Amino acid sequence: MTEDLSSRPRPAEAGARRPSTGVEIDRVKVGGGAPVVVQSMTNTDTEDPVSTAKQVAELARAGSELVRITVNTPAAAAAVPRIRERLDMMGVSVPLIGDFHYNGHQLLEGEPACAEALAKYRINPGNVGFGKKKDAQFASIIEMAIRYGKPVRIGANWGSLDQSMVAALMDENSQRANPWDAGHVAREALIRSALDSAARAEDLGLPRDRIILSCKVSGVQELIAVYRDLARRGDYALHLGLTEAGMGSKGITASSAALAVLLQEGIGDTIRISLTPEPGQSRTGEVIVAQELLQTMGLRAFTPLVTACPGCGRTTSEFFQELAKTVQGHVRERMPEWRVKYDGVENLTLAVMGCVVNGPGESKHANIGISLPGNGEAPSAPVFIDGEKSLTLRGDNIADEFVAILDNYVETHYATRQD
């Protein structure tokens, strides 16, 4: 008898999304009820349009929906239109975001083709200018955004706070009956920097639906506290990210711990996982982590994910680990083609299990699952399709046969797109 899959308990869902003003970045919408957008940043020298365009394309093909590039010199600004042209020739339409610090006003004014080619500008209110020049230089960038119809991310950062604002808040705090601690003052300075700059941008004529805010710090608890407060104090679209998260498991763990709490509370409209890549490692790792975070939380679906058991004394063979790796690698390799060809394939669920304890049960909960033999079990591997045992694999070709079953399932169960 076929199991009624609709009777299974449904997973708990994330909380309601915080209402925010939607911002259009070319064809990508951030906020306003749109799905949380994944973005990333290159680490190439922007003055080299060939290597930069290549990395942007890699990030976009991995699933980055927005890509930010550093624009720090006149030569880098001059290269931006050439990068855009190369991407268009490659069929890569991902919007490019220009990351400006210190001299953004000069670069945008000096290279109008750069100002036009970028889909969004990112500016840091802590270093857009200093002293008497700050307001004028900030206004110059905002006026360029207005002229070219571009949105702006006003991105305050813990490491580059406006020290005059910090000093003013410290003086203000000293007059309180119950003064805040230093951390609270610093968080308030960060939030105030972003909100005051956004208000200034609106006064200059930039509409609210072209403003995104971020307040980045490098500590998990500080980031959660900052964004909870920021979210309460306005309806601007919010960019989430833990700055300088770190390398490898530390960076992944810290970013996931902070962003998962906020996303569960409905806070955040676009995210970036700021990982320090291992030497020689692809920059696309940060895109995969961002996608998997959103997908495992049930907020979006990007690619079929494989449920696999961790292994124990019942599973001394490494075969189930190798099969799980093979299946996940196969899915990621085929997904660019599948995404274009098949509607809904990103929701496919897979399970590769190592023994009889949880193997059959977990396999039944997936669209396609396999329960491999553990120590002392019969040398056979039952395969379950949509909750029902379909066949049993044996012998030395289990991996190839299971991948073939997966490919056939995709071809026969998902409608071909009619774009």
Automatic annotation (TrEMBL):
InterPro entries: Dihydropteroate_synth-like_sf, IspG_bac, IspG_bac-typ, IspG_C, IspG_TIM, NO2/SO3_Rdtase_4Fe4S_sf. Binds 1 [4Fe-4S] cluster. [4Fe-4S] cluster binds at C309, C312, C355, E362. Converts 2C-methyl-D-erythritol 2,4-cyclodiphosphate (ME-2,4cPP) into 1-hydroxy-2-methyl-2-(E)-butenyl 4-diphosphate. It comes from Luteibacter anthropi. Its cofactor is [4Fe-4S] cluster. This is 4-hydroxy-3-methylbut-2-en-1-yl diphosphate synthase (flavodoxin). Keywords: 4Fe-4S, Iron, Iron-sulfur, Isoprene biosynthesis, Metal-binding, Oxidoreductase. It holds the Pfam family GcpE. NCBIfam families: ispG_gcpE, PRK00366.1. Belongs to the IspG family. HAMAP family: IspG. Residues 1-21 are annotated as: Disordered. GO terms for biological process: isopentenyl diphosphate biosynthetic process, methylerythritol 4-phosphate pathway; terpenoid biosynthetic process. Residues 1-11 have a biased composition (Basic and acidic residues). Residues 306-407 form the IspG C-terminal domain. It catalyses: (2E)-4-hydroxy-3-methylbut-2-enyl diphosphate + oxidized [flavodoxin] + H2O + 2 H(+) = 2-C-methyl-D-erythritol 2,4-cyclic diphosphate + reduced [flavodoxin]. The gene is ispG.
